[in-house]
Fold:
Amino acid sequence: MKFTEEHEWLRVEGDVVVVGITDHASEQLGDVVFIELPEEGTEVTKDEEVCVIESVKAASDILAPLDGEIVEVNSPLVDEPGKVNDDPMVEAWFFKIKPSELSQMDDYMDEAAYKTFIG
Amino acid sequence: MGELSRTPLFDLHVALGAKMVPFAGYDMPVQYALGVMKEHLHCRAQAGLFDVSHMGQVILRGESYGAVAKAFETLVPMDVQGLGEARQRYGLFTNGGGGIEDDLMFANRGDHLFVVVNAACKDADIARMKAALEPAVTVEVIADRALIALQGPAAEAALARLNPAVAEMTFMDVATIELAGADCWVSRSGYTGEDGYEISVPDAQAEALAKALLDMDEVEPIGLGARDSLRLEAGLCLYGNDIDASTSPIEAGLIWAIQKVRRADGDRAGGFPGADRIFGDLAEGVARKRVGLVPQGRAPMRAGTQIFAAGEGGDPIGEVTSGGFGPTYEGPVAMGYVGAAQAAVGTELFGEVRGKRLPVTVAKMPLVPANFKR
Structure:
């Protein structure tokens, strides 16, 4: 699993990468009340805003961590945004991306580096 | 930025695991371990304890209550003289343009007037009162007392364990009552839409009182985050967001706070700053009005969201001044200003969120019914 400085996690699953936000991010956000997911089939570029996540406190953007195509989104999250607080690392993944350049993964931190990053 | 001030309950907040944030110059708890959503729901279901010690507490004394009330009426469009002993009322400091300088609570405590003002405005409010009222009236800033609010349907049962006298009070009553060994100035009021109390307690005894309440099963500490969503659902204004120096009380829908005796045809009409504009607004109507707004989708519409009459084209006809998620309402809630023509309950409008116009409906406030003990 890899981690971005934007507090996203990336998990390789066959030829796609599953993306969500970390426990740390979910704690910092507080109770999540709204999620807007991208459309399946959308071509995205790295660092493009692809999701909106709103907590009781504020709205935040989720950035595409890689270039590629959004091949699947976790639609049930839209009706149950609180899952992002309950299980951000597994059940509450946001989208799956088919990367055009898997080597972009190398830019990201491993778990140990991320733990250091968040202190 | 100067040093943040701390309330007498600072150590308790930290011990309770609060997340502290700067607010109006104070280091204040925005949430505790429960989190904003659960704190909000707990307050509506049982009882929540809030530290509001950052607010300004001021005592005005003169020859008599009547003399002080008469002088105070030059600053606010409220009936102060007619306020009964041991009663409290909501008030507004207005400016020469008829805008609102702050909102406040004032109480007739027998031989003096007790005033509670917003933290962010307190220095200006104190200066305003001193300039207008001294020397006939003395303006005593109370710097050695904390202010605690206990709000929610179980507030009476909880506080009555410390002194059953509190149960005898009804909405907007004030009394001096001993609680946990402290001489407290108690009012049956609050800013959540729930029944409850606001308690002015000497600094040295504040933590013991707060702990005595928090030890009770039904009481949880509640931070500023839930305080904001509670007051928003209750349709209550946040000074600086929903009302400000340019807003007239009539635009803000606060006409109920201006008693008849102070209106144009009353026995003590006018005599407060901005009376001309406020009476003009009353007589001729206003161009914009504060309304409740319910987004029809799930996306919250936060402060600053522009409101349009149509799904495409046209200029904005209004703006959200407070908005977020209402945990009790179970959906996004907001309030803001729209053109008078669009202010009728049920009017369907559009709020622009991230470039998209989303449907929003004008709704009656409060969005969650109030639960006061009248």
In short: Chain A has four helices and nine strands. The helical segments of chain A are 23-29, 76-79, 83-86, 111-118. Residues 111-118 of chain A form the longest helix (8 residues).
